[in-house]
Specification:
alpha/beta, 299 residues, 10 helices, two-stranded antiparallel sheet, Rossmann fold
């Protein structure tokens, strides 16, 4: 019996369609996953037509490039310095994307949806679902609200002070950790910045010093409910595009992806995508792995 989307994104039968779509038995297992010249993998799975169709999209791609992928971004400061994208789409607009339905095989977005409201993200998820073929895979990476909340509760300044990035160097994946991101700032302010940097610098909260005010705001509430109350105070109308205006948890991602029509939603981890070509860490999962949450969704 078919499992409805109300079952919480646990329809494992969706993987049968993914298996048919990808045909992973054609992959050469002797080739390393993490390599820049991975075109051979795409050709093995999808044939020569993949170079023309490029049936994959990176949403909020910035300067990211892959020969068989198409890029989305919205050309505005501070992102107008990048190479023009294949699709210049304002994600705050609810219009349909200029992509035919059921033409994509994979979609990826990294540290983009924290810059959008729930309503905007709901539209993004629905458009990805519309444009993916049955069995297509959508991978999402975004700041993990729960770990940020735990770091605030634990007064874990190091969590906010350090930032990691995965990079390719001489054919290897290296992890570069930079420091100084919490310099001169209270942990409370860094916690706010993780999901509400649109508020700007906050010295007080509801008439109290920021540490006391945030403690009061969270008292007796789920962390998510407190975050909702905090975001109600934000003015999104004039905020720069690179500021954070939302929080994300596995539960929230799952609910919204299921509402958008995805049949299977799986919590993932760094380099752990169910689609092997999106496990290539030269291209994917490179942004702030120490503070991210990952989810794979199957149409």
């Amino acid at each position: 019996m078919a499992i409805s989307k109300q079952a919480g994104g646990w329809n494992w039968e969706a993987l049968d369609d993914t298996a048919s779509l990808l045909g992973l038995e054609r992959l050469d297992d002797s080739l390393l996953t993490d390599r820049r010249d991975d075109e051979e993998d795409y050709l093995a799975l999808f044939g020569a037509r993949v170079a023309e169709e490029r049936p994959f999209i990176n949403i909020g791609a910035g300067n990211w490039r892959h020969p068989f992928w198409r890029n989305h971004d919205f050309v505005q400061p501070p992102y107008d310095k990048f190479t023009p994208p294949d699709y210049n789409i304002d994600l705050s607009n609810s219009a349909a994307w200029p992509i035919d339905s059921e033409t994509l095989i994979g979609a990826f977005t990294s540290h983009t949806i924290e810059h959008l409201t729930d309503e905007m993200v709901a539209h993004v998820f629905k458009e990805v679902n519309r444009t993916l073929r049955t069995g297509g895979v959508f991978r999402i990476s975004t700041p993990d609200f729960h770990t940020a909340y735990a770091a605030w509760r634990l007064a874990d300044r190091r969590y906010y002070h350090q930032r990691s990035t995965a990079r390719a160097k001489s054919g290897r994946i290296v992890y570069v950790t930079s420091v100084g991101f919490a310099e001169g700032k209270a942990v409370s302010l860094k916690y706010l910045e993780r999901f509400a940097s649109c508020l700007g610098r906050v010295d007080t909260w509801r008439g109290l010093p920021v540490d006391e005010g945030l403690a009061m705001e969270h008292a007796g509430k789920r962390p998510e409910d407190a975050a909702e109350c905090i975001l109600e105070e934000a003015d999104f109308s004039t905020k720069p595009a690179n500021l954070h205006i939302n929080y994300w948890t596995e539960e929230k991602l799952r609910r919204m992806l299921v509402d958008a029509g995805f049949r299977l939603v799986l919590r993932s981890s760094f380099g752990q995508c169910i689609f092997p070509l999106m496990r290539n860490k030269i291209y994917f999962d490179t942004t702030r792995p120490n503070e991210s949450i990952w989810v794979d969704a199957v149409k």
